[in-house]
Amino acid sequence: MNAVHEIAVEIGGTPILLRTADLSFREMLAGRYAGFIGSSQNSRFELNVNLITPAANTASDEDVRVDVTNGVWQLRRGDFRAQWDPHSGRGDVRQTASPYSIDAVLRILHSLLLAKEGGFLLHAASAIRNDRAFLFSGVSGAGKTTISSLAPQDAKLLTDEISYIRKTADGYIACGTPFTGELARVGENCSAPVQAVFLLAQGPENRIDPVSTVEAVRCLLRNTLFFANDPDLVKLVFRSACEFVDKIPVQRLTFVPDSRVWDLIQ
Amino acid sequence: MSDRFIARSTAIAARMIGGEMMVMSASDSTFFTLNEVATAIWQAADGRTRLSEIVSQSVCNQFDIEPDIARADAEHFVDELSQHGILIVSDQPVTSPDAVEGL
Predict the structure, then answer these.
(1) In chain A, N or C terminus with fewer CB closer than 10 Å?
(2) In this predicted model, what pLDDT tens digit does every residue of A149-175 receive, in sequence order?
(3) Interface with B, mutate which of A111, A217, A240 (most B CBs under 10 A)
(4) Which A residues, 181 through 220, put their C-beta within 8 Å of a C-beta on chain B?
């Protein structure tokens, strides 16, 4: 009987137990998600990872596609195929030993799990300062990496790429994630109430400007990670974005790339 | 063209925020912000009222717009939203489960 190796990766307080027959893959996961390793005993969700040999005909550039069939989620990209039963909390993934594949699967699963609870994953850097979380959202090139690299020592970086936002009874919290961008620096595994979201723009001076509610919702939706081809979940994400904007200030932050921009972020 | 019946699809998410109606297609995630006139048409799209009547009652009677311009704008608006599955357009009254009865 083949040995099965387990490791629980806990992001946003949600552990997902990963099982693999490959010890070296398990060790790779332990290194990649160091700081986000949880207890196997507490995992409500389980994912069996079946490794395959890379095939020459693998279409690695195939876009992510997520569909639901008979209540089971089907996740696919050029480098992986996965299915996930949201009722049992269990699933399987077939992929090569690439860390990028399991990273993508985890992002998708968390986006689906969060959507049911009014939260979401956002293309945004985030950091905690004075016990409050600040998010810096924008598409690639908007300045997420730049503003993360300029963060002062008293700021705890939650992520430079993908922010994890969970709805709570009192509002919203932002949690650290191991999902890295160009800075390749894993976020700290901690959380804080969200104080504000800044839509990033680079310009000749540091300034904060208001944005309309509609623009805030539009930008939030544009930068939300969501892949599912499912009308009910799309409605949930839309509602979540509207409720979030009702409670959390969303403003435009124009900045020059030096550390003085953080004087505005307190 | 204006004799068509129009109905709001159920495959959408919509919310009025800050005086503006935001509508998103649940099928392709396209996002629209409707102005006052478009919102009036949207809210009147019950599947039982002809577009020509909606333009007459909900647009021309409430906004200072020439009837010909109102009709042309309404046709354009309806065509665009129907392409994204946000509005259902039919030559007959719309009673399908894909359409919303009330808002």
Answers:
(1) N
(2) 999 999 999 999 999 999 999 999 999
(3) A217
(4) 212-214, 217-218
Q: Do A221 and B15 touch (CB under 8 A)?
A: no
A235 and B18 within 8 Å at the Cβ level: the answer is no
pLDDT tens track for A10-22: 999 999 999 999 9
A134 near A122, Cβ under 8 Å?
no
**CB distance A218 to A177 below 8 Å:** no
The pTM assigned to this predicted structure is 0.88
- Check if the interface score ipTM surpasses 0.85: no
How many percent of chain A have pLDDT more than 90?
79
Which single residue is written with the structure tokens 């200030």? A249
- Using alpha carbons, list the distances in angstroms from residue A120 to A7, A67, A72, A135, A194: 24, 18, 20, 13, 13
Long-range Cβ contact pairs of A1-4 (< 8 A, separation 24 or more): none
